[in-house]
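Whiteboard transcription, Tuesday session. T.W. wrote the C-alpha cells on the left side:
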C-alpha cells in the first residue's frame, strides 16, 4: 500500500479578497485533517522564502559554535523560563539542543550576538509566524463553526507565544531518537524543517514521515484546540527521528494562549449537543508550567511526562 501523504494546503486565498471558493477548498482539507489526526502542511503562508532560508543558515552557524560560546546565551538551569540556549541533559531520551525565544519585546529573551544578523532574523521570523498563526486560528475557528472571531477574541494576548530553533545531532548506530512521541501543549504549532526530514506524524496507527518541501511549513493542532473542541479536532501525535547522515535543524513556533485563560470544552461541543465534556477545565499557566518543566527537567520515565491525559475525565 502506498504511504498516505500529509495534505498540503495553499493559503494564498486568505491573502486576497474575494476568492471564496479557494478559501472553502482550503478549509475543507484542514477540517478533515484536523478531525482525523491534526496535521497538515501549508504553502503561500506569508513567511518569505528568503527569510526562512536565511534563518536556517544562521541557525546552522550558531549551533556549529562551541558549547562554551553557545552557553553565553543560556539562562542557567534554575531560570523560571528556559529562554536562550539549552541542551537536553544526558539522561533525557530526547537528543537535541535549542535556542528558545519569546516575543521580540520580551525581557526574558537572551539572544546571541553572533552570527551577526541572527537576532534580527529571529525577530523577523517570529513576527511572520505570528501573522500566519493568526490566519490559521481564524481558519480553525471557522472550521469548528465557532462564532465569528471567537478564537481571536479569546486568544487576544500574544505574550506567551514562543519560538525554538533546534539542532539534532546525527543518529548513531544504536540510537536515533530526536524527540519522543508527544502532542504539543499550546494551540497551533508551525514547523520549518530542514530538507533532511525526520519529523513523523502518527496517522491511523502508522508513523508517516513528513517529507520536506521547499517553502513549506508543517502545522500541527495542539492540546488547547483539542480541549476546546472536546476532541473534535485532534492534537497531533508526532516525533522526531534523527537522520543518520548529518545534523538536522528546525524552527518550531508555538502559537499559545495567555496564562490566565481558562481552558475547558466549549458548550458548542458539550451541553449544546448533549455530549459529556472529555476534560476538566484548567488555567493555561498551570498546564504550561508543567510542560515547560518537561523541557527543562525532563523525566527519565515516559510515564512521568506531563501531558493532557492528566485532565481527562
Ligand atoms: O523539530 C521538529 O521538527 C519538531 C519539534 C517538536 O515537535 C517540538 O519541539 O515539540
Ligand atoms: Fe512537538
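and on the right, the sequence the group agreed on:
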Amino acid at each position: 500500500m502506498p504511504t498516505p501523504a500529509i495534505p498540503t494546503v495553499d493559503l494564498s486565498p486568505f491573502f486576497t479578497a474575494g476568492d471564496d471558493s479557494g478559501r472553502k477548498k482550503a478549509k475543507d482539507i484542514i477540517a478533515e485533517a484536523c478531525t482525523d489526526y491534526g496535521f497538515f502542511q501549508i504553502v503561500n503562508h506569508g513567511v518569505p522564502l528568503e527569510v526562512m532560508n536565511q534563518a536556517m543558515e544562521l541557525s546552522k552557524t550558531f549551533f556549529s559554535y562551541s558549547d562554551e560560546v553557545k552557553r553565553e546565551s543560556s539562562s542557567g538551569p534554575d531560570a523560571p523560563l528556559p529562554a536562550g540556549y539549552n541542551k537536553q541533559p544526558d539522561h533525557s531520551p530526547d537528543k537535541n539542543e535549542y535556542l528558545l525565544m519569546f516575543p521580540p519585546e520580551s525581557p526574558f529573551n537572551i539572544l546571541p550576538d553572533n552570527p551577526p544578523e541572527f537576532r534580527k532574523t529571529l525577530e523577523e521570523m517570529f513576527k511572520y509566524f505570528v501573522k500566519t498563526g493568526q490566519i490559521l486560528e481564524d481558519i480553525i475557528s471557522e472550521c469548528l463553526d465557532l462564532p465569528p472571531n471567537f478564537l481571536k477574541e479569546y486568544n487576544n494576548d500574544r505574550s506567551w507565544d514562543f519560538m525554538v530553533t533546534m539542532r539534532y545531532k546525527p543518529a548513531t548506530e544504536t540510537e536515533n531518537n530526536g524527540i519522543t512521541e508527544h502532542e504539543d501543549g499550546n494551540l497551533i504549532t508551525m514547523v520549518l524543517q530542514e530538507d533532511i526530514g525526520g519529523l513523523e506524524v502518527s496517522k491511523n496507527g502508522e508513523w508517516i514521515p513528513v517529507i520536506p518541501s521547499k517553502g513549506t511549513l508543517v502545522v500541527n493542532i495542539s492540546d488547547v484546540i483539542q480541549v476546546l473542541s472536546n476532541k473534535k479536532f485532534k492534537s497531533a501525535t508526532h516525533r522526531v527521528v534523527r537522520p543518520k547522515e548529518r545534523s538536522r535543524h528546525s524552527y518550531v513556533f508555538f502559537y499559545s494562549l495567555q496564562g490566565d485563560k481558562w481552558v475547558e470544552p466549549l458548550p458548542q461541543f458539550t451541553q449544546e449537543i448533549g455530549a459529556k465534556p472529555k476534560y476538566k477545565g484548567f488555567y493555561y499557566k498551570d498546564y504550561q508550567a508543567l510542560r515547560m518543566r518537561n523541557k527543562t527537567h525532563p523525566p527519565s520515565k515516559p510515564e512521568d511526562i506531563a501531558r493532557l491525559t492528566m485532565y481527562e475525565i
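Someone added at the bottom: The two ends are 37 Å apart (CA to CA).
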